[in-house]
Write a structure and sequence with these properties.
Length: about 240
């Protein structure tokens, strides 16, 4: 059984995926290998999107933190149910981009060994929003105006403040998963959102984990190499010992 998390709020605008159809297509073929997939539609996505939110654009910085906290808590609850109530012998967690960061956090915090598959994921949201191309899509001036009314912060101070807030998402500060050999990162060679050094930084923090590279960019690599992502799921689950229900 693999639980998959929603991709980042930037991906739907480029792939048209604001629900969970694409993840079902990823997991569907795994049924032939006796691997079921449960897909979590995260807060601020699809039917859980706030009424005033336009597409995938979050209204507040705090929404990003709330999205992450709720997704992680819900994923952990689902894994607990799958193991304790449903009796699945092996479980795993995977996610794409921001969902990959959340998957890494869930894998880190889970009390028993699970397969952990962070796909196209940085080690921290700081990389995506303060260093990657998303820094050009963030409403910095709106953030500055809001902060200036309260504390008179400059634009540069606002950027540093966001960097400090998002440092909470640095997965290298999280505990090493119970079985790091069951952690497989899949990263893209030409990813404009997630630099290679960020992927390798998390891999180094979790000795025993593995990084696999696929060609393409942040979206094209996933669309063109579904088989490579599926193989990573299968391989990570195979590393685990079977648990008695």
């Amino acid at each position: 059984m693999a639980v998959t998390l929603n991709p980042p709020h930037t991906a739907p605008s480029r792939t048209g995926d604001h629900t969970f159809e694409r993840r079902l297509r990823l997991g569907g073929p795994l049924l032939k290998q006796n691997i079921a997939t449960m897909v979590l539609e995260s807060p601020f996505y699809g039917q859980r999107r706030p009424r005033l939110q336009c597409g995938a654009k979050l209204l507040c910085v705090s929404d990003l933190l709330l999205l992450g906290r709720a997704t992680i808590d819900e994923a952990r609850s689902l894994l607990h149910w799958l193991e304790v109530e449903a009796g699945f012998g092996k479980t795993g967690i995977c996610g794409l981009s921001m969902g990959g960061v959340h998957a890494a956090m869930v894998g880190s915090l889970h009390p028993t060994p699970i397969a952990t598959l962070p796909f196209l994921a940085p080690h921290s949201a700081v990389v995506a929003f303060c260093e990657g191309v998303l820094k050009h899509a963030t409403a910095w001036e709106a953030l500055r105006e809001d902060a200036a009314q309260k504390t008179g912060m400059t634009l540069e101070q606002v950027r540093e403040r966001l960097r400090s807030v998002l440092s909470l998402t640095d997965v290298t500060r999280f505990p090493i998963p119970k079985n790091p050999k069951a952690v497989i990162f899949v990263a893209a060679t030409d990813d404009g959102y997630i630099p290679k050094h960020s992927v390798l930084e998390l891999q180094r923090a979790w000795p025993g984990s593995e990084v696999r590279w696929v060609t393409g960019g942040h979206v094209s690599s996933f669309l063109l190499h579904n088989d490579a992502f599926r193989k990573a799921i299968v391989d990570a689950l195979n590393i685990l010992e079977w648990r008695e229900s």
